[in-house]
Write a structure and sequence with these properties.
The protein has 11 helices and 18 strands. The chain is α+β, with helices and mostly antiparallel strands. The protein starts with a strand and ends with a strand. Bound molecules: acetoacetyl-coenzyme A. Acetoacetyl-coenzyme A binds next to helix 2, helix 6 and helix 7. Its EC number is 2.3.3.10.
């Protein structure tokens, strides 16, 4: 049975910061960000936005054109969850008015967990082919000011509907998986920003690329030449280039950079969106000008700590009729540009605690985080 991504949509934040502004304010050569990291700008959440509002917005766009009554499970993947107990997906379930007969759960393993959710969804549909599963990947990548990660921040959500006989891509059976216990990037429960061993994180990512590829190649009769386009996890887009080069060296085959180019266009503008990053890459690839019908895509998913997966997907005939690049363009182009000083003020004003407070009304998106009452996070659907 063919199972995969039937529909896909995205959301991001109200604000955007151009990295040229950050470079000027910090006295850094702008080329370091544009070329060295491969980033142009990043999405910045308003005080009334978070992973729930972005995830619900992306999912609403899907549900407005699909039948919500077929959804049997909501899997919300994030590494910047808003509660230690209650799944962010339960808030989304409520905001979207989904039926009660739905299983809802949150997945976590750094940036990788979106792929765990996607594969779980595929496995569910393999057993219950009439069901559809809503997978939401949503994150706010927020690093300490003046840290190496500060220019690699960002935020966004990608929602995917997983179904039998999908309109967009079929996820092929047998992927390559990899786990190694590495302390390259972690965020303890009492910290709103991660701790990062920058150099180690690059090495851990590249080790995982090779480990996951080798496992895939051992389990399937598959060569890199069988893959038409590659999408690698993009903490910053230059990292995908490094992964691609490393893979080519490892397999001893020249892999041109044009094989990954299209997948980086959205991430250059959104910044890191952790669990959503790979799927913004997939969206960008599908939204490109090239006709990909019948072509195989290779997707590499990485989460620090570290867990990774290399899997493949085959693009379906007629897929272009089911794409909505206009919502991505609208999400990216409608963001309000802020100055470096405004960005820093927002960053410093971040409230991580659960004390009572109200947020100012900024976002014009369909869902708002309105604040905390009696330690309960409050949301509004417009
Ligand atoms: N013009 C052009 N390029 C320049 C330049 C200039 N003027 N100045 C520097 N560069 C280049 C450097 O040569 C370097 O490129 P290469 O790596 O290809 O040599 C690049 O810009 C970055 O320069 P530095 O290494 O000096 O940058 P840094 O030390 O300030 O920080 C970083 C880099 C460690 C990645 C930092 O951004 C960071 O900590 N990021 C967060 C962690 C991260 O994203 N790790 C990636 C793997 S982990 C993962 O993937 C999970 C996840 O999502 C977080």
């Amino acid at each position: 049975m063919n199972i995969g991504i039937h529909d896909l949509d995205v959301a991001t934040t109200h604000y955007v910061l151009k990295l040229d502004s950050m470079a000027e304010a910090l006295g850094v050569d702008p080329a370091k960000y544009q070329l060295g990291l491969g980033q142009d700008e990043f999405s910045v959440p308003a005080p009334d936005e978070d992973v729930v509002t972005m995830g619900a917005h992306a999912a609403k766009r899907l549900l407005d054109r699909n039948d919500p009554s077929k959804i049997r499970m909501v899997l919300f993947a994030t590494e910047t969850g808003i509660d230690q107990s209650k799944a962010a997906g339960v808030f989304v379930h409520g905001l979207l008015g989904l039926p009660t007969a739905v299983r809802t759960v949150e997945f976590k393993q750094a940036c990788y967990s979106g792929t765990a959710a996607l594969q779980t969804a595929v496995n569910h549909v393999a057993r219950y082919p009439e069901d559809q599963v809503l997978v939401i990947t949503s994150d706010v990548a927020r690093y300490a000011v003046d840290s190496g990660g500060e220019p690699t921040q960002g935020a966004g959500a990608v929602a995917m509907l997983v179904a039998a006989d999908p309109n967009l891509v079929v996820i092929e059976p047998q992927s390559g998986v990899f786990t190694a216990d590495v302390n390259d990037f972690w965020r303890p429960n009492d910290s709103s920003t991660p701790f990062v061993e920058g150099k180690l994180s690059l090495d851990a990512y590249l080790d995982a690329t090779i480990g996951a590829w080798d496992d895939l190649a051992a389990r399937r009769d598959l060569n890199v030449s069988d893959i038409h386009r590659f999408m690698h996890h993009q903490p910053f887009t230059k990292m995908a280039r490094k992964a691609h080069t490393k893979l080519a060296e490892h397999v001893g085959v020249e892999l041109g950079s044009e094989l990954i180019e299209e997948s980086m266009t959205y991430n250059r503008r959104i910044g890191n969106s952790y669990t959503a990053s790979l799927y913004f890459g997939l969206a960008a690839q599908l939204h490109g000008n090239e006709d990909l019908a019948g072509k195989r895509l290779g997707l590499f998913s990485y989460g620090s700590g570290s867990v990774a997966e290399f899997f493949t997907a085959v693009v379906q005939p007629g897929y272009t009729e089911h794409l909505h690049p206009e919502t991505v363009a609208e999400s990216l182009d409608s963001r309000e540009e802020i100055t470096f000083e405004q960005y820093r003020d927002l960053h410093n004003a971040y409230v991580g605690e659960s004390e009572n407070y109200e947020t100012a009304t900024v976002t014009d998106a369909p869902f708002r985080f309105t604040g905390v009452t009696d330690r309960v996070r409050q949301y509004e659907a417009r």
